[in-house]
Write a structure and sequence with these properties.
Pfam families: NUDIX. With 135 residues, this protein is an alpha+beta fold. Helix content is 16%, strand content 39%. It binds 8-OXO-2'-deoxyguanosine-5'-triphosphate. 8-OXO-2'-deoxyguanosine-5'-triphosphate binds next to β1, β4 and β6.
Length: 135
């Protein structure tokens, strides 16, 4: 089975990063992730990411450089190809999400304390500076 192509925003504002907890009833409910979603056929990643963030958080973003791209086979057997991009807000910060039951802005050093979706862990290790030499 092909991996599911997912894009996510590492949305930075004033030295903090937005993290979101997946709402009850969704895949991986209760785990933290970066906002984003699946890339639709024919869509370029940056456009898919801006669309997903607009749909779920109701805000505009600027999509910058690719921070990390990793394929993770989850415990349920599905492979997620997750591309995380550095992003900034284009306008006001989000107040709520259609997909999440908590939004938090945290300094990168504090990201490691959360229960992250498996696919996000490589990006989180990059952001917290806790990558092992052999990774
Ligand atoms: N958005 C997002 N999804 C992630 C991350 N990490 C991770 O494993 N996923 C998984 C959860 C889902 O199985 C899939 C993305 O689905 P989604 O539900 O957020 O995206 P979507 O809006 O396009 O999907 P859908 O509910 O319309 O089917 O990727 C992440 O950091 N952000």
């Amino acid at each position: 089975m092909q991996p599911i192509l997912v894009v996510a925003a590492v949305l930075r504002d004033g030295g903090r990063v937005l993290v979101c907890r997946r709402a009850p009833g969704r895949d991986a409910a209760g785990q933290w992730e970066f906002p984003g979603g699946k890339v639709e056929p024919g869509e370029v990643p940056a456009a898919a990411l801006a669309r997903e963030v607009r749909e779920e958080l109701g805000v505009g973003i600027h999509v910058g450089a690719l921070l990390d791209r990793s394929v993770t086979v989850r415990a349920d057997g599905r492979a997620i190809d997750l591309a995380c991009y550095d992003c900034t807000l284009d306008g006001p910060a989000p107040a709520s999400s259609t997909d999440h039951d908590a939004l938090r802005w945290l300094p990168p050093a504090e990201l490691g304390g959360l229960d992250w979706a498996e696919a996000d862990r490589p990006a989180v290790r990059l952001l917290t500076g806790t990558i092992e030499e052999d990774e």
